[in-house]
Amino acid sequence: MAKRVIIVDDSRAVIATAELALDGLISSGVIEFKSYLNPLELLGALQNGSENFDMLISDVNMPEMNGLDLARAIKSDERYKTKPIIVLTTESSEQMKMTGKEIGVTGWMVKPFNDEKLVKSIKMVLGV
Amino acid sequence: MKDLRLLIVDDVEDNRLVLNAICRKMDGFAIKEAVDGLDAIAVCEEWHPHIILMDVMMPNLDGLEASKVIKSRFPETVIIVVTAVIDPQMEAHMAAIGAAAYIHKPIDKELVRFKLQSFGAFLRSKDGIHAKLSTKEALNPFCSDVRHLKTIFDITDAEGMMDFGVWILSRCEEHQTFSSSKVDPVIELFYELMRQGLRAEEQVSIIIEESFEEIFITMKFDKPVVLKAKTQELVDDLQSYCIIRQNFACVRLNIGVNQPKAETIPVSIKTPEVCIAVSPSLLPLSEVEDLKEVRVLQSEEQTLLRQSFVKKTSAFEYVADIGGDVLDEIRDLESLDEEWRESLNTLESEPSVENIRQFTDGVLAVYVKAINNLFEFTALAYALSSLGTFMKEQADAVINDPKKLKMLVMLTEHLGSDLTSWREHIFALQDAADIHYLDSSFFSSCMQIEQIVGDKKIDSEDDNDNDMEFF
Fold first, then answer.
1. Is A10's CB within 8 Å of B451's CB?
2. What Pfam families does this protein's entry cite (chain A) (predicted)?
3. Nearest 5°: CA angle at A93, between A92 and A99?
4. ipTM for the assembly
5. Tens-place pLDDT, residues B312-337
6. In chain B, which among 431-450 make CB contacts under 8 A with chain A?
7. pTM exceeds 0.90, yes or no
8. Pick the CATH number of B132-293 from 3.30.565, 1.10.260, 1.20.1250, 3.40.50
């Protein structure tokens, strides 16, 4: 059964480039891909149970809500506590990463990303 | 001690504020402002500034006319032109009037300080005040005994960079070849190269060799040099006066009265401590043209991508602070949204170099101009212009490859949507908690497009930077 991978990023261009990178996994049915531009919309859908995921890829700097705040909110919900969240961002400060680690984020990757390394990491985290 | 007087001339208050904020952090300068060319002349009459930062387009009397009057009355005044307009004719006029240097908008504050401090130290040295610029034991660049020998600058910090700037200015002044059109681009080029080298923590050395009529400035690199777009432009402008190879850059500067003839240009000799600097005229043309950029993630770009704005400014605060004119210009960009899409649709249905240029010059360039007026968004403007440069470079490859074309159009359309959304969050809704939420991400997307469309594998200088870090 395909794993549900959600990406949340305020940039359509980032979502499109990530989708292109993951095209092989999507077209072969290994993952199903869903994107959100607004973290608040995703959080609402997760909280009311209309959305679910096997892996979340989140940006950090978004106008409506910071990606780390989103991760913290999701991780505080028992239903999603153990689900992997990876951060895909241009931010690379140690302090920011440390915050991510404390929240329980699984991994951190900086943009612009290398397609092959993104796919490899996602496969590793999902165990596919 | 504020021994030098600096006058900032600009009709836009925000611009004066920005320049003033940059300049007042330097020691030794008393600063005044003038709001147009007439005001500038009036201030010069009573205050006699040593250096003037002069805007060009101003009401009442523009920067060109004001500079003419000021240079005719006070020929010693150093005029540095601050302009967003790259107009060779205007630059030629300004050079003829005697403008000493240019500062291009968007303003690079470190470059502004570098130029002002170099001119400052240069003016002081003319008055016999030799400020000690470097705390290190360095070769004395002003010693006549070494002028016909190699002069070596070991650049380890900003002070070392300044020593080099002062030396060049002073050297050219001695030979009455103090022309902005020649010296200024050379200083800018080496400033960029030195800064790039220092940031990469490389050993930066500049070796100067002299003939009777020319000086040859050579900089060695530990690693193969990667030029960013701005540096490449400087190299292009210098044409045959500059040559860059993987391990060195060399510029020749004519300091004599007569232009040297090509056949008399000496080839510098290879010695154990100096790299080979071959005169461009002796290289086959094809070799000169074959200088290609290797597109890896550069340290400059790393800095832009990874810049962190410690003090977060909210969109609400920011918009309250900027001028109405700038805001109107940004709001006018709304009319470009449709043009952005249509221009890309036209390109997709009728692929041609002209249609790529229509998009880059007719749509992208308008965006760059508007964003350039917002000093806060240098990274965004840089990203957009680098996208334009990339599209023009790749024009032939893209129009002949339907798959690449489709990909480029699709991704660029998304970038357009991102910009629309950015305008909404910053200027209309004003709800972004951090005005810089898009900058780095947008730049990153532009690079990602280069990776996908240009078959260029984007890689960081440090390979591990691209790995996912697991916690």
1. no
2. Response_reg
3. 105
4. 0.89
5. 788 888 888 776 777 887 888 888 88
6. 431-434, 436-438, 440-445, 447-449
7. no
8. 3.30.565
